[in-house]
Amino acid sequence: MGRSGLPHGCRCACDHVWGCAVVPAWNVVERPCLMVLLREDAQPEELESVLPGAQPGDRVWVGLRSALLGAHLIADLEVMNPAVESVLRRLLTALAVRIGGLDVGGREEWEERFDELLAGGRFDPGAVNSYFDRWLQRFDLFDGQRPFMQDPRLADECSRQAPPGRLVMPRPSGANQPWLDRTPQDDPVPAAEALGWLLAWRGYGPSGLGAQRHHAGVDSKNMKAAPLRALVSFHPRGESLFVSLVLSCPPPLGGEVLGSDLAPWERSELEDPLVPAAVSGPVSLLVGRATHHVLLAASGDGAEVTGCWVAWGSRVDLPAARDPFVIDRAKGGPVRASWRRQLLRDFDAFLHARDPAAAGIKGQVLPVWLSVFADLPPDVLAALADVRVRALGCHQEKQDRDEQWFGVTTPASIAPFLPSRHPGRAARVAQCRLGAELAASDMAKALRGAWKELAPGEKECGWADAATSEFWDRADSMFWSAIGEDGTGLPAFRTLGLEIFDSVTREAASSPQGLLPVARARSSFTHPRSGRKKS
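The structure corresponding to this sequence follows.
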């Protein structure tokens, strides 16, 4: 039985067949599914040939074909939700790997093609059109046999259809806070927005309960957390979407099996939820890993999603693979997302991606594109002087609980601070970052010391977390100003910490029992022991 409740074999004069339901084609190659910001310096004549009617600086909706054909004219994606932006960047990067011919196994050949592609300044229109024309049918959101990035078996294997709001993660559902999105669960989701949320479930879906699914003798509603769940990823953001995507393409790291490195839409068979495929190259790494399967139900005119199925897509842990955009650790796995952690604390590491030990980083593997970027010739780096780091993540639990979505870009670009080109600037970044870290650490330590004296029976300090969060919020602008061309001297991070310390402890310090504990703690902060330099 199909989504309409009628046999799949029934045929009628419609674009697709779900029983006798007429479901018009909604192909993301051609239909507008991405909001993009056009470059202010884009040539109007060239824009007209790719995006008729668009003007430089406009925000426009485009399909995947136009996004790749006009990537050099597009400044960046315009996406409201960081999880959606993260998975859309991975999808576009996978397409860039294929269209740009970067799906090769040898590092030397890859570097030659990478250099040629970057120097060309745009994706070859013939390659873009050839690829999409070949796989066009597989990119339809509501195709009756192979809907894009979905599992059509869910309509038969799942107990019931969920309301459309289940697709949109911030809407009230499970343990999500209702203030994230007050849109009712039954409100349809525009098809133009559905692609992003469909991919977000594959990347960031929670563990917990989904639709009851019966597949090959397995009957369960338990879902595992998606591979990017609770992680933060770091992407390149250049002067154009083209530059961002080319820099995102991961180089071969060894062990690639290119004939098997397929995207879900390129496979002859649907994904096997009982035996998830191992990563065999960059494309399967970027878009082929999922622990959730999703299926969309369309309105009669195909303009909206009116329901969905979300169910388990793997009963076992996915085969190990290192995502190219996360910071991985030898112990503890990839770095988890935290909205409280400012990018200034990682900027020093980004600059030393080729030699992390030089920045005091041990046991971590940084996103691979950072080292590729640092290895580019000086003339190429000069042309890419505006490349920055875009951090995307959600401070969340593995379960169905999202606390804080965040997307932030470094105010400063990377190239002017690379130690291979500007060792003095790199050293200044390291000095400022270390000064901030020491000041924050000493402030928190002093607050915990005062709290322990005032409340010896309480394990958690009621001051340190809030004070530290405020410190990093206020230290952020000080750091970026200090490392700029006009920056002089080390920022007064310790003065900032002392101001916050005094504010937090003011009430306690004015009481008889709190006067001495706060004074002693304050002294330990203003006069750190030997080995600590004031900042």
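The first strand starts at residue 17 and ends at 18.
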